[in-house]
Each structure stands twice: as C-alpha cells, then as structure tokens.
Input
Amino acid sequence: MKRIFLAIAFAAVSTAASAADVGAGRYQSVLGDCEGCHGKNLAGGVELMTPFGKLVAPNITQDKDTGIGNYTAEDFRRAMKEGIAPGGKRLYPAMPYPAYARMSDADIAALWAYFRTIKPVRHVVDVNQLRFPFNLRFMMRGWNMLFFRPAPYVPDASKSAAWNRGAYIATGPAHCGTCHTSKSFFGADTGLALSGALLQGWFAPDLTGDRDAGLGGWSARDVVEYLKTGRNGHSIASGPMAEVVEHSTANMKGADLQAVAVYLKDLPPSAGNGGGASGVEAQMKSGAGIYRMNCAACHSFNGRGDSVLFPPLAGNALVRQAGAQTLVRVVLAGSKAVATPAAPTGPGMPSFAWKLNDEQVANVLTYIRNNWGNRAPAVSADEVAKIRARHGS
Ligand code: HEC
Ligand code: HEC
Ligand code: HEC
Output
C-alpha cells in the first residue's frame, strides 16, 4: 500500500514539473490562435478561402492516423518554423508559419508539450481543395525559395522590454500581419507592415499611427480595451477580427495586451491610404436622407454613436479606410459584436440587404465616409453589387 502511494507521489512530482510547460504551451496556443483555424477540439477546422481556392485546416490532435500523433518534437518545430511537415511535405502559408517562424524554440517546445496532452480525435480532413495548378504542393518549394525567409525575432535594443514583447507577439505568434499587411498576387507581404490589407470580402484596417486611416487617434488604453473586449469608444470588432478577439486576444494576459499596444502605438504613420471623394454631391445628398431614415436612430445624427453600444461613425478609422469592402458587408449582412467575458452581451447591427438597393448602400456609405470630418473615396453601386453577389445576400 505504502509503496504504491510513494510511486503515485513520485509520478505526481514529475508531471507537475511538465505541467508548467503544458500551461505555458496552452497559453502559446492562445497567442497563436490555433483553435481559430483548427477548430475548438483541434480536430480540423475552418475552410480558408484563398485567391487560389479552398484549404481546410487539418486535424492536429494526437490521433496517429488522422492527426499529428506520429510527430516528434523536431517534426513539430519544423512544421511551425519552416513550413515543412514530415516526409518533406511543404505547407501552404495559409498556415501562418511565416509568422510562427519568429517564435523562440522555447515557446515552440512548450507548445509541443501542450499538444502532447491533446486528446486524439479520429477525423479525416480533405485539406487541399485548391485549384490546379496551385493544388500541386511541390510548387510551394518555389514559393518558399522566393518569398520565405524564416528568421527568429531579433529584439531591438533601442526599444523597451514592453515594446519588444509586443513586437514579438504581434509579428510572431499572434500573426497580426497575416491579415493587416497587404499581400502580392503570390501571397507574399508587400507594402508597409500592418498598414491595412484586403481579405476575402473584408478590409483589415491600417494599424499604424496614421491619423485618418490608422490608430493615430487611439490611446494605448483604447487598443487594450478593443483587444480585450472587442470594442471601445472608436470601433467594434466584427467578422474575422471578432473571431480573433474571441479565440485569442480576449484571453491574452493584460501585460501582453499592454505590450502589443505599446508596439502598435509606436508604428510610424503610413502615408495614409485614403483620399477624399470629389464630384459626388448627388451621392452625398441621397446618402444623408438614407442615413436619417435608417441609421441615425442608433448612430445618432452627429455620427457620434453612443459610447459603447453603438459605435461612432465620425472619426471611425474603419469608415475612412480606402477599401470599403468591410463597410459594404456590415451594412448588407449586419453584424453582431463579439461577446467576451469582460463584456458579455454584444449589441447587433441589423442587416439592410433586404431594404436598401446597391445604389442606396453606395450612397449612404459615401455619405458617412465624407461627413463629420471623415474623408475617404466614394463607394460605387457596382462595388456593392459585386460584394452582394459574392456573398449571396
Ligand atoms: C489562419 C489559419 C491557421 C492558424 C491560425 C493555424 N493554422 Fe495550422 N494549418 C492551417 C492550414 C490551412 C494547414 C494546412 C496547410 C497545408 O496542408 O499545406 C495547417 C497545418 C498545420 C500543421 C501541419 C499538419 C500536417 O499536415 O502534418 C500543423 C502541425 C499545424 N498547422 C499546427 C498549428 C498550430 C500549433 C497552430 C497555433 C499555434 C496553428 N497551426 C494555427 C491553418 C492555420
Ligand atoms: C484573420 C484576420 C485578422 C487577424 C489575424 C487580425 N486581424 Fe485585426 N482586423 C481584421 C479585420 C477584418 C478588421 C476589421 C473588422 C472590424 O473592424 O470590424 C480588423 C480590425 C482590427 C482593429 C480595429 C481597427 C479600426 O480602425 O477599427 C484593430 C485595432 C486590430 N484589428 C488589431 C489587430 C491585432 C493587434 C492583431 C494581432 C493580435 C490582429 N488585429 C489580427 C482582421 C484580422
Ligand atoms: C438598431 C441599431 C442600428 C442601426 C439602425 C444601424 N446600426 Fe450600424 N451598428 C450598430 C451596432 C450595434 C454596431 C456594432 C455591431 C458590430 O459591429 O458588431 C454597428 C456597426 C456599424 C458599422 C461598423 C462600425 C465599426 O467600427 O465596426 C458601420 C459602418 C455601421 N454600423 C453603419 C450603419 C449604417 C450605414 C446604417 C444605416 C444604413 C446603420 N449602421 C444602422 C447598430 C445599428
């Protein structure tokens, strides 16, 4: 009896040592948002639409046949940092390894300690549904040679510890640039980091210090509040960003959110990607009428909204982005703010697809983009029609 007890006590001590790693690894998976793509139980997840067709995030549980149960720690490190799975399989960068490549080996090792504890789930996923010729994996070898320079994060000694931690999180595990940095036709980063990019039907706004389009008007506290709760006095996260908040940033430690804010607030302003509309008086007039009838009740006549429930449209960076795709989607499809533990009930933006035609949507958006001090390009009925057709609403 006593011997068994001792053996158990001994086992408890040795697993307690690795439990710290497992806990640290679980937190790395929050930073990296693995569940956001691979699904809640990590057994395979969302369909990722790319310009080249569809990829489905695979099963990464410990199942030996359908998951990654046969991986070694080194296999895992290579997949995460070099984009090469066992057998030399080149991964597509829809798996954000170009960002994960910046993670430290210690963080990857902790992540693996956590993954070893993931319950195996048998689930076959048809990952590669890309169009020919993009479905040919060996093409990725060329892409990797041309565009992929794996490089660990190198701290900048001239900056504070918080800045460096924030830069590490944003450009490494949390891969903010995967959405907020524009990509070339080949999916490689182009343009200034985090200065805004088009996704499939959404526009991920400029996060630099630009006053019009970026976060120039936000304080570090505003950034933390947005990432923690999905909303602040300037904006409310919807679409892909609502998912990022829900699975990842809402669960980040306060000090890490603060660090990300320090880093973002130090990004020099992009040259601005907006530009005012001109020659659109008729659109503005019609838009003003549509706004009074349909929008002012919630967003108020002066566009100031109401601090937290209804976002202000005046001075709203999303409203002033060069790309209006996200705005068109929000007005057509409506949007439900994410509910987070810190702010449990999200208010909703109704859908107007049934009520406003393409021209009306274009006019009201042109109006809110060029009123109350906002300045951004006009939106055309054609643009609205394309987005409506693509998303079937
Ligand atoms: C933006 C979506 C996305 C996120 C976030 C993401 N993955 Fe992936 N992952 C994918 C896709 C898509 C693939 C399939 C790529 C392929 O087969 O070419 C993949 C493949 C993998 C593979 C290779 C599996 C195999 O085929 O052997 C591993 C391992 C993996 N992911 C681990 C992770 C971990 C760990 C995280 C969190 C730190 C993570 N992924 C976050 C989309 C994502
Ligand atoms: C999967 C794509 C994706 C990822 C990854 C992502 N974002 Fe976003 N983000 C978006 C989109 C799309 C929007 C616009 C939607 C909205 O505002 O409702 C957005 C909006 C934002 C906004 C609000 C900007 C404004 O002017 O309203 C901030 C701040 C932000 N993201 C920060 C981040 C940070 C920091 C990270 C990394 C931790 C990150 N995002 C990762 C897609 C993404
Ligand atoms: C019933 C109240 C209500 C009405 C009416 C309404 N909205 Fe909204 N709107 C909201 C709420 C709540 C949100 C934030 C919800 C979210 O993003 O999830 C929002 C979000 C938005 C956003 C995104 C702002 C951001 O920073 O994310 C835009 C743009 C917008 N509304 C424009 C309009 C326009 C244009 C109209 C009229 C055609 C309109 N709204 C009518 C409640 C309303």
